[in-house]
Amino acid sequence: VSEIDDLEYIITSTETEALILEINLIKKYNPKYNILLTDDKQYPYILLTNEKHPRILYTRDIKKSKGKVYGPYPNAKACRDVVNLLNRIYPFRKCNKIPKKECLYYHIKQCLGPCINNIDSKEYDDLKTKLNSILKGNVHDEIKTLTALMNQASIELDFEKAIEYRNIIDALSQVSERQKMEGYLDDIDCFAYYCFDDLISIQVFHLREPKSIER
């Protein structure tokens, strides 16, 4: 603290935005005392691959990721939980390479079975639309359904199942939270101003690659 020369702060809308902005600035400036986030790890993302038979994956490396990415998500556990949930809800491909015969996921209706079926691309398009809606924050119906299941499990004294539903609800709520610190498609310079009496304050936020990294 004794070595501080100047202090500046940026107000964010949520804790999630604060965490994302913090890691972006640490990666850019590599400050001496921020040792926890100076490694090469990033917050995780959810990836929907652009393969013929797409998959839903958890990833930290968006530079090598081929497909549509959602995030980042400061809570890594919540991100993993939601990826697992989405893979149970939507029958996207689960295997790394398509096998010669169907697997268990096909029999429990968690995969369309591209190994034995000729899947129409429209089926995947419909699934992608629903997935995109959820990861853009439209989770009200899913949370309502899960809440009903949680309450029913609690009534039946199945508390382990009720806790599982509660944890899924919490994870879904966290990853559906909107944020403005990262995820833009293009480089942007965002101008804002505020007037008070005869004074004016002008700010320019620089968003690159596609993160908010400077102002």
Radius of gyration from CA coordinates = 21 Å
Strand element count? 6
- The helix-strand sequence is HEEEHHHHHEEE
Helix content: 25-40%
Task: Figure out the total of helices.
Answer: 6
Largest sheet: 3 strands, antiparallel
Structural class by sheet pairing and helices: alpha+beta
Strand content: 15-25%
User: Mean pLDDT score, rounded?
Assistant: 83
- Poorly predicted tracts of residues: none
Distance between the termini: 23 Å
Shape: globular
Give the strand line-up of the largest sheet: 2-1-3
What does this structure look like?
It is a single chain. The chain has 215 residues and is an alpha+beta fold. 38% of the residues lie in helices and 17% in strands. The strands form 2 sheets. A 3-stranded antiparallel sheet has the order 2-1-3. Strand 1 and strand 2 form a beta hairpin. Helix 2 crosses helix 6 and helix 5 runs antiparallel to helix 6. The longest helix has 17 residues. The mean pLDDT is 83.
Entry summary:
The protein is of the alpha+beta class. The chain is 38% helix and 17% strand.
Can you lay out the helices and strands and say which pair or pack?
Layout (H helix, E strand, L loop, with lengths): L14 H15 L15 E5 L6 E4 L7 E4 L5 H14 L14 H4 L13 H15 L4 H16 L3 H17 L12 E9 L2 E10 L2 E4 L1
Antiparallel strand pairs: 1-2, 1-3, 4-5, 5-6
